[in-house]
Specification:
Helices cover 32% and strands 18% of the residues. It has eleven helices and 15 strands. The strands form two sheets. Strands 1, 2, 3, 4, 5, 6, 7, 8 and 15 form a nine-stranded mixed sheet that branches. It has a six-stranded parallel sheet with strand order 11-10-9-12-13-14, with helices on both faces. Helix 5 crosses helix 9.
Length: 352
């Protein structure tokens, strides 16, 4: 969205915050020029009218900013009821995950996604396997696997080593939720007591008490994006111990490329969009149980550093968020032309 904001007014509508007596829209301009719109709704609105109240707030905002026929960009089908009768120049469904497989998914999500597919002019998917699952449901679907801010994460390579005790470190960053294989994590930590396992990120939707507790397992909590290269610099190996369940069936972890840019060897469970292409290209070690995961960590600790970096950099040379946006932008121009609109997306505003 920050790349879109270089040529357009981009307004990102967040999920509502409940509390207070009257509905209000907080508008914050963040770095990169994106305006973040945060609806504040009365707690009593939860049951019936939250979509209606958000619609009123959005309509007032569009009127005040003199935005007509905005481009509507959806990241979740659950936002479909908010724009209401707003006449868009284009409708984009950016399907980043199979949200219906996540813990606590709203019962209405599947029905709303069907409605969004019927309304969308173009659909993007956040990975190849998700594309294969969705392409039969819409005539204009395009796969956009995660890219990487390589320069940001390469900062991990230039951070000097700090003295430490406790043996090698194997790290993970991301949301700690039902997508992690907790039993695998516990088993590997037990099998390698001389290795320190660090999981950086918020604990969401699961009881923290269910996480395994061992002297060599550490949960330091979330860190800002700017601090992640410094965190990774302290690791010897990066890991992705994902479970195999409905929530991970179609994931395409952005952190794969971020770990590569940071220069760390990677061990992952056999997530489909990790196996292909990264596992098949020998860029990521794939392991599906405690014994093989622990062995893969041993191998990663012993591998040739220079050869790994050369392979990573050769792969990363072909991907960037700038390239992703250039491809998306071209597709949006074509979709708008097909819809019969006169303006290009650079002249439009976005809401999500």
């Amino acid at each position: 969205m920050t790349r879109y904001a270089k040529g357009a007014r981009v307004s990102f509508l967040e999920e509502p915050v409940f509390g207070g007596d009257a509905p209000a829209l907080q508008v914050t301009e963040v770095e990169g020029g994106v305006r973040v719109l945060t609806p504040h709704l009365p707690a009593s609105a939860r049951q019936r009218t939250d979509d209606e109240l958000q619609r009123e707030l959005l309509e007032r905002y569009l009127h005040r900013e003199r935005i007509g026929s905005p481009l509507l960009w959806f990241y979740t089908p659950m936002a479909l009821g908010v724009p209401g009768d707003i006449d868009p120049s284009l409708v984009v469904y950016d399907c980043m995950d199979e949200l219906s497989g996540f813990l606590g998914a709203p019962p209405a999500l599947t029905r709303r996604e069907e409605q969004l597919f019927s309304r969308a002019d173009i659909v993007f998917t956040g990975g190849q396997s998700l594309y294969e699952a969705k392409r039969a449901r819409h005539p204009n679907v395009h796969a956009f696997p995660s890219s990487v801010d390589a320069d940001h994460f390469r900062g991990a390579r230039s951070v000097g080593a700090t003295p430490r005790a406790g043996g090698p470190r194997v790290g993970f960053f991301g949301v700690i939720d039902e997508r992690l294989d907790i039993a695998l994590l516990d088993g590997v930590a037990r099998a390698r007591p001389d290795v320190q396992f660090v999981l950086v990120g918020p604990i969401v939707k699961i009881d923290p008490a269910t996480l395994p507790v061992r002297p060599n397992l550490h949960y330091p909590g979330p860190r800002p994006y700017a601090d992640l290269p410094g965190c990774i610099a302290e690791w010897d190996v990066a890991m992705m111990p994902f479970a195999r369940n409905d929530a991970t069936r179609f994931i395409s972890p952005t952190k794969t490329l971020e770990y590569m840019a940071a220069g760390k060897p990677i061990v992952s469970t056999p997530i489909r969009d990790v196996v292909r292409p990264y596992g098949e290209a020998g860029l990521v070690r794939i392991a599906n149980d405690v014994a093989s995961f622990a062995t893969a960590i041993d191998e990663a600790l012993a591998e040739d550093h220079g050869r790994r970096l050369a392979a990573f950099d050769a792969f990363l040379a072909g991907t960037s968020w700038d390239r992703t946006w250039q491809r998306m932008s071209s597709l949006l121009v074509a979709a708008i032309a097909a819809r019969g609109a006169c303006a290009e997306p650079g002249r439009q505003a976005e809401t999500a």
